[in-house]
Specification:
about 350 residues; alpha+beta; Isoleucyl-tRNA Synthetase, Domain 1; four-stranded mixed beta sheet; 12 strands; about 45% helix
Length: about 350
């Protein structure tokens, strides 16, 4: 009906990005859980990949065919190019859920940026994420709170108004207001610097105009001509974009630090699994030896669960292990080994 190769290919690419970098990552625990939960997660992934093979067939025929051949059943067409193009089943659409998930993804994006700003790695758990957003989106965010907390690796979610997270500065565009006000433009900047700019900023962030009185004359500030800059309150790293302001706490307690080190151990052990060419379902024994025994005991069950280990030893590894390595963990040398 409408030939738009560029627009449709970009939409497919965006979907694949969300599938790979959101659904698959958020579903890893479900894939490993076994039973009906794993079957449901894998069935959803299978359906998505199969649909993608049909969607990309006009653009990447050989890749689509390879994907189709890896996924097709005896009841499917012999080739992706002989199969019917997928049809939308609007009965499966959940607009409320989709809007809520879009909000979560927006908050997660800003939360990760705030972490990066404060040089806090994602594997380091933090105590709280604090979010200011439109009131009509708060319920949806709460409904998917577990996904938000898991993705940002924080313990708590608090929803607040913007002024609870930061104070704000507003910067009128000199190209706009310098032209309209002329020599009085510096007076506008001086006026703004001497007042509480947060109420003005919050109105602008909501998409509303704001007004100030300059020598008896009303000056209107519009969202598209003013730069709003948040100044985080102490103890937070804060990012703001449009009507969203997201902050994460920056204090790392000893308990949070130890949990972050345990997560780093999981990453290193799973990398060792990968280097040893083990399958996702192979069960192993693991050895962890180094200056970490003071806190390791609290996380033994967690480490075993996340690495599919049947046993964890804190002694030197025997000679017949499948793989071994030495890593640096918070400045300490730690020796890791595993045996299938």
């Amino acid at each position: 009906e409408q030939y738009d190769a560029t627009g449709t290919s970009r939409a497919i690419a965006a979907f694949v990005d969300v599938l790979s970098n959101w659904y698959v990552r958020r579903s890893r625990d479900r894939f490993w859980a076994g039973g009906e939960e794993a079957q449901a997660a894998l069935a959803t992934l299978y359906e998505a990949l199969k649909t993608v093979s049909l969607l990309v067939a006009p653009y990447m025929p050989f890749l689509a065919e390879q994907l189709w051949q890896n996924l097709r059943t005896a009841q499917d067409a012999d080739s992706v190019h002989l199969a019917l193009f997928p049809q939308v089943d609007e009965g499966l659409l959940d607009e409320k859920l989709s809007r809520a998930m879009a909000t979560v993804q927006k908050v997660v994006s800003l939360g990760h940026a705030a972490r990066q700003q404060a040089s806090l790695k994602v594997r380091q758990p933090l105590q709280k994420v604090v979010v200011a957003l439109p009131p009509n989106e708060a319920e949806g965010l709460r409904s998917l709170e577990a996904d938000l907390l898991g993705e940002l690796n924080v313990k708590e979610l608090e929803i607040v108004t913007g002024e609870a997270l930061a104070t704000y500065r507003v910067g009128p565009d000199p190209a706009v207001y310098g032209k309209t006000l002329g020599k009085r433009f510096p007076q506008l900047r001086q006026l703004l610097a001497g007042m509480d700019q947060t109420p003005l900023a919050l109105a602008l962030l909501r998409g509303e105009n704001a007004t100030v009185m300059l020598e008896g004359e009303e000056v209107t500030l519009t969202p598209d001509t003013v730069l709003v800059v948040p100044e985080p309150r102490a103890g937070y790293a804060v990012l703001q974009e449009d009507v969203y302001t997201v902050g994460v706490t920056t204090e790392v307690t000893e308990a949070l630090k130890h949990e972050g080190l345990a997560r780093e151990l999981v990453r290193q052990l799973n990398q060792l699994r990968k280097d040893a060419d083990l399958t996702l379902t192979d069960r192993i024994e693991i050895w962890v030896e180094g200056e970490i025994n003071g806190w390791l005991a609290e996380y033994i069950d967690y480490l075993k669960e996340k690495t599919l280990a049947t046993a964890l030893h804190t002694s030197a590894a025997p000679d017949d292990v499948t793989a071994r390595t030495t890593v640096d963990l918070d400045g300490n040398e730690v020796r890791l080994a595993l045996k299938k």
